[in-house]
Structure prediction request, 463 residues.
Amino acid sequence: MTDIQQVVPAPREAARRYRAYGARHLDMLTRRAGLGEADRLAIRAVATVLPFRTNPYVVDELIDWDAVPDDPVYRLVFPQPDMLPRDDVDRIASLLRADAAERLIRSAAHEIRMRLNPHPAGQLVLNAPTLDGRPLPGLQHKYPETVLFFPKQGQTCHAYCTYCFRWAQFVDEPELKMATDHVDTLVAYLRRHREVTSVLITGGDPMIMSAAVLRRYVEPLLDPRLDHIESIRIGTKSLAYWPQRYVTDTDADDTLRLFAEVVAAGRTLALMAHYSHPRELEPLVAAKAIRRVRDTGAVIRTQAPLIRSVNDAAVTWRSMWRSQVRAGMVPYYMFVERDTGPQDYFAVPLARAHEIFRDAYAGVSGLCRSVRGPSMSATPGKVCVDGIADVAGARVFVLRMLQARDPSLVGRPFFARFDPRATWLTDLQPAFADRFPFEPAEYGSGPAGLPGVWPAELVEPAC
Prediction:
């Protein structure tokens, strides 16, 4: 680990200044792809409902413009006309074409957004903690060991993913946003809840913040009175979308010194890095950023959802995991696309997701097999599709809770009837039981004190 005061200075190279491209730049950018006027208007219509943001690094270094519109990184950041129902796209496009009043456009966009399940898994209600009877906006406490913290200044990103499950943070809907700038409230909550061992600073992307602002949120977590906090995690896409944050940005060295201080204080600092495609790992500046972060003693764990038309092939994940391990990172999760936003456009059936994961997993070494998935971050917890099997004459999904609101369910296997079209937990029906183990007991229970998990030999096969 690099000494706190001796972070190796960033190499002297041409520093690229960050610049955000937003919806007003869309027409200019999509002209570069050679798209016609109708297609460009449809893309602008989608970007009126869902957020769009990118930057010169993504546009110039990661996208193969000769392959647009099929290029995976282009599809990763640029809205696609089919992401919303055709009637909705046509409605917004007509308003834009007619140069309608802003209030009419905003009203139509709001109506469409409210049909897109902006806050899945009950996160605004079920995960909301309180302190002395007061709600704590900007905090979530879903699992006993982990608290999520949403710093106010970190609720944007260097670029937005088209499939982002937190898209509601980035649109003009203030009541949908989660954020706070009261780190003292977080500290007070943690002092009352010593079962919490890990704090996840999330967003948006906390690494959009300057080193000085990030320090204001991180430093209080190093207080010796919070000695039960073992790890501080930062959820970020910056290593993929703006690696200059750790190399040539003016406060890159200050940021890395802060990372080193966290490690020196006896906490694990983990960057939960979001990589969606192997191409994000290829530029030299990306490799430099990874090395500089790891030199502080921080751990980089990698995760992403499985997304149709972006990374829905075993060879893509196999290549990505191997490149990550080669760079010293730890593959962590393959997620299933959440039931929010344009899920219907990006979702991969669970059966296909398991096949992709299995085939990718079979082609990597043991160091890559730290990865888990495909995993659904659903209301009851993280549900992993462990396999597809024939049990007592029935075709079933074999599922397991990797994390759960009820800790007694963690690690417990259970079964769901096989459905080749299912893309989310709510599409499934229990097998060998009248309810899933996380469902309320009034819906029935299994024998021998195992609610909803019935031994196959004791029941008729599910049809």
Q: What stands out?
A: The two ends are 57 Å apart (CA to CA). Residues 23-113 form one domain. Residues 135 and 274 are 30 Å apart (CA to CA). The longest strand covers residues 381-391.
